Amino acid sequence: MIYLGWPISVILEDMKETGSPNLLFENLDLTPIQPTLWTDLHTKGPGRPVEYNPEWDLRALMLRQLNQIPYVKDLVKRLRRNPYLRHACGYREKAPTEAHFSQMKKRIGAEGFRIMEAWLRREALRLRASQPLSSVRARVEQLLDRVLGEDIELELLAGDSGFESRRVFEALEPRRMGSLIAWRRMKGRNNPADVLTVRDRIDVEGPEYKRVVYKRLRALVEGFIGRVKCRLGYGHLTWQGLENVGIHVSLVLMVVYAVAIATSRLGRPELRQSVAFFA
Q1: What is the residue range of 136's domain?
Q2: Euclidean distance between CA atoms 55 and 85, whole angstroms
Q3: Is 12 a domain residue?
Q4: CB within 8 A of 165, min separation 6: which ones?
Q5: Three-class secondary structure of residue 2 per DSSP
Q6: Which tens digits make up the pLDDT trace of 115-164?
Q7: Could you tell me if residue 196 is inside a domain?
Q8: How many domains does the chain divide into?
Q9: Is residue 116 part of a domain?
Q10: In a domain, 161, yes or no
Q11: What global pTM score does this model have?
């Protein structure tokens, strides 16, 4: 096939050097989530045969987030007009219709997408743990093992004032989890001196060491949310209904985990947060 004067095979080979959706999908093995992808589909017996592999459809929906394509109808147009994108997803001469993707979402459902997201998250964390530690981090972890013991786990929940709830605190107590949750400033209530209290919409007041930890953790979260908004269209929700909102969030996180997995397998762990490398 010729595209813009160049064979498609030459274009795919060239894109491998700089990063591309094709490179991302080549280093992403989705075999463990095939049962979820093939929910309510069959390859034998009566009925219309499966025309498109559901793994190709999932790649296409992830490509939509990666390239920040606002609507599925625009994704379909891009797939039909651009053979490189079709081949990156797995399609050949034809691309599915908009209704096909709607049927896929309905068939798998938000729970199915959450299951696939959870598997990608576990795989990304497993590969990240297998990466060699830096010498400084290794020495710190060895010291903590000697001081605290290898069987001790420290857990901490940090959250803004939206998490200030008796039910949340009661759920943390039996799990022996600490919390850094900013309390709301309410008329007629005096907050304890050892907790963080919202001073304005962003800043908090309270013990200095808690303020430092809270701000650092908040910066990590805000940085992550900023990246997915900027690079993956996290805030461009064009699907209606809570079910579709859950699918949208799952797809965004799946791309994040897919990038971490692919960069680990490429031997480039320093790019695990670089969504732009594959866009």
Answers
A1: 1-153+237-279
A2: 15
A3: yes
A4: none
A5: strand
A6: 999 999 999 989 888 765 454 455 545 554 555 454 445 467 788 888 88
A7: no
A8: 1
A9: yes
A10: no
A11: 0.72
Residue 191 is encoded by which pair of tokens?
């907050």
Give the tokens for residue 71: 């609507």
Residue written as tokens 């963080």? Answer: 196
Q: What is the pLDDT of residues 179-226, one digit of tens each?
A: 888 999 888 899 999 999 998 777 899 999 999 988 888 888 788 888
**Cβ pair 258, 24 in contact under 8 A:** yes
Please give the Cα distance from 97 to 76 (Å, whole number). Answer: 6
DSSP for 117-182 reads: HHHHHHHHHHHHHHSPPPHHHHHHHHHHHHHH-TT----EEEE-GGG--HHHHHHHGGGT-EEEEP
Structure tokens at 46: 């009566």
Structure tokens at 141: 């972890």
Better pLDDT: 251 or 45: 251
Long-range contacts of 225-232 (CB under 8 A, 24+ apart): 227/273, 227/275, 228/252, 228/256, 231/68, 231/275, 231/276, 231/279, 232/65, 232/66, 232/68, 232/256, 232/275
Q: Give the distance, in angstroms, between the CA of residue 167 and the centroid of all CA atoms in the same chain.
A: 28
pLDDT digits (tens, 9 = 90+) for 37-72: 999 887 776 767 788 999 999 999 999 999 999 999
